[in-house]
Specification:
Layout (H helix, E strand, L loop, with lengths): L1 H14 L2 H23 L6 E6 L2 E7 L4 E7 L2 E8 L2 E6 L6 H4 L9 E4 L4 E6 L12
Antiparallel strand pairs: 1-2, 1-7, 3-4, 4-5, 6-7
Organism: candidate division KSB3 bacterium
Protein name: NusG domain II-containing protein
InterPro entries: NusG_2_sf
């Protein structure tokens, strides 16, 4: 069984030309080189918008300390804002993915608790109301 797998690997390596390898290497370098640029373009958030059942529940400044109990169909989701970050402390949902998401602080980041219909979104002062414009 191991011989069969190693033979397949050798055949795949023989099928790759130097141009294929150069293309793969170039794409890898391009993606690694663009990561620091994209990372530096992230904007610090200014406000936290909390939604429940598709409606804005409350909007608060990100650089203040607040703890909120946001109502949802399953119960209350506890959201904490502290020192420029926001995170979900506890939620009545089963998987607790919203809690495991951790802290967020940059414009556009969000935490979603789908079972309890709660969305926590970091926004900035100059966040546009649209994603793209088409003609």
């Amino acid at each position: 069984m191991t011989c069969g797998n190693s033979m397949k690997n050798v055949q795949i390596r023989r099928q790759l030309t130097w141009a294929d390898k150069a293309l793969i290497g170039g794409l890898l370098l391009l993606s690694l080189g663009s990561a620091p640029v994209l990372w530096s373009l992230r904007q610090e958030g200014r406000t936290v918008q909390i939604e429940t059942a598709g409606r804005v529940y409350q909007t608060l400044p990100l650089h203040a300390s607040h703890t909120l109990a946001v109502p949802g169909p399953l119960g209350k989701t506890i959201v904490a804002i502290d020192e420029g970050t926001v995170h979900v402390v506890d939620s009545p949902c089963r998987a607790k993915i919203c809690v495991k998401t951790g802290e967020i602080s940059h414009t556009g980041q969000l935490i979603v608790c789908i079972p309890n219909h709660v969305v926590v979104r970091v926004t900035g002062a100059d966040t546009p109301a649209y994603d793209a414009i088409t003609q």
